[in-house]
User: What shape does this take?
Amino acid sequence: MGQQPNELTPDAGPWHRWGYELRQFREARRLSQQVLARKALIDRSHLGRFERAERPVPSTRPSPSMRLLTPLVH
Assistant: This one.
């Protein structure tokens, strides 16, 4: 069983907004972090850091794996 998710503060800045929207997308589709991470070809822990705003929002030139993930959240 996973740990309880941290409360997100989407108004705290762009990293937080992106993480919030990412989690909302994932939960609305009842996907685990593991499943979404596999679809985006990234590690689950990396996805978790995005959701918790511990990783910056992808730059204007996202990595190949982030190019796959970004359309999923919009």
